[in-house]
Amino acid sequence: MIPAAFDYVRPADIGEALTILKKREGDAKLLSGGISLLSLLKLRLAQPSLLVDLRDVAGLGGIDVGGDSARIGARATHRQIFEHEALAAALPIMRDAAGGIGDPQIRNWGTIGGSIAHADPSADWPAVLIAVGASLTMRSADRERVVPARSFFVDTFTTDIEPTEILTEILIPVARVRAGGAYKKLERRAGDFSTVGAAVQLRQLGVQIFVADLVGISVSQEVGALITAIVLAGRTGAAFAAQLGSMQVNEEIDALTTAGIPPVQFLVLPRMLALIVMTPLLTIYTDLFGMVGGGLVAVTVLDLSLTTYVTRLLQVVTMTDFVMGLGRASVFGVLIALAGCLRGMQCGRSASAVGLAATSAVVTSIVLTIIADGLLSIIFSVLRL
Ligand SMILES: Cc1cc2nc3c(=O)[nH]c(=O)nc-3n(C[C@H](O)[C@H](O)[C@H](O)COP(=O)(O)OP(=O)(O)OC[C@H]3O[C@@H](n4cnc5c(N)ncnc54)[C@H](O)[C@@H]3O)c2cc1C
């Protein structure tokens, strides 16, 4: 079949190409290797009035492999990708995929950028680029943007690219740790499009994985209870001292004693019981947030997947760790209540004495908590828990 009539331009640089695309928005089509586009033109499935040939535009080709990323120009051909030794060493999956595309003629002319922009569901590059976590750079006359391959492919023959944009390069992270990948396709005949293709890229996890052990065990055994106790010492311990101190100033405690109500039973015991129950409950809350925080760091900074982090957490954190943490929390609760009530009972008969009692309660509870924490660690380690 013969294509409908169209104009043809060969801009010399990317600025000129982008200006043309902007002027003829929706009316012009980019031509890279031409393999897919010419078939569409011949079948009249595409009828642009202008073809913008990218072959003279500098900066769109080439392949560079650096320390932690590889850059592939949009006009790099499948063959150039296949033959690039440094790329094959860093990302063997790229050679796997490029070597299986079509026949030598297709590999000599076809470009990775054209293949991606065309987004044929049987094409090989989309699955590979998603597996390796590639990012695609697109430029228009007004801006440049980088889109992850995962969100670039919208649907069959549909991508995120705008009619005024040119896909300029593909950036692929290169893992510093040991990594490897492979691409396999099922084709009915040699050189055919794939009936189905599968791409996988794996990398060996380094010490990052142990962040789950570190966070999980330390938070559940000790840190969760300790942080909760320090917060409670500052708020509840001080509040107990201030409350009982005010009762001293108002002679309410003397009144209770005169009425035959023992102040320890009436004022101290309920507060102690409250903290014995509430400190472990709040510790569970702290543990949960500690582990969520660890997960955030693992995913955003250490590049671990959430599933890996959670799976590892479930493997390493045991019920004993939680019981140890909650046991600590109950002991801390008793100490905070005791220090708060003791300082309140010892309070003088003035407003300033109430302030001093509250401050002293905080200091006493924190000191007692830290001493108890150390002693409990020794006891747990002697008991080999
Ligand atoms: C017989 C045959 C067998 C094939 N076998 C396979 C196979 O096994 N596996 C496989 O994956 N593919 C296969 N292909 C497709 C081949 O890989 C094409 O090279 C590829 O799909 C298009 O690349 P191209 O450079 O020719 O793009 P073109 O045909 O020039 O362009 C394709 C589309 O992308 C747009 N475009 C091109 N460059 C850019 C850019 N830089 N920015 C924005 N848009 C752009 C164009 O406007 C057009 O819409 C086969 C094709 C044929 C004809």
Explain this structure:
- The strands form 4 sheets. Strands 4-5-10-6-7 form a 5-stranded antiparallel sheet.
- With 385 residues, the protein is α+β, with helices and mostly antiparallel strands.
- It folds into 2 domains: 59-204, Uridine Diphospho-n-acetylenolpyruvylglucosamine Reductase, domain 3; 208-382, no CATH class.
- The model has no long low-confidence stretch (mean pLDDT 93).
- The chain starts with 6 loop residues before the first strand and ends with a helix.
- It has helices at residues 14-23, 35-42, 78-83, 85-90, 92-99, 104-109, 112-118, 125-131, 149-152, 211-249, 252-258, 263-300, 306-316, 319-345, 351-382; strands at residues 7-9, 28-31, 50-53, 63-65, 69-73, 135-139, 144-148, 153-155, 158-159, 166-173, 179-186, 196-203.
- Helix 10 runs antiparallel to helix 12, helix 10 packs parallel to helix 14 and helix 14 (319-345) runs antiparallel to helix 15 (351-382).
- 37% of the residues are buried.
- The protein is built from 15 helices and 12 strands.
- Strand 4 (63-65) and strand 5 form a beta hairpin.
- The structure holds flavin-adenine dinucleotide.
- Flavin-adenine dinucleotide is lined by residues 29-37, 54, 74, 101-102, 106, 110-111, 113-115, 117-118, 120, 123-125, 161, 166-167, 193.
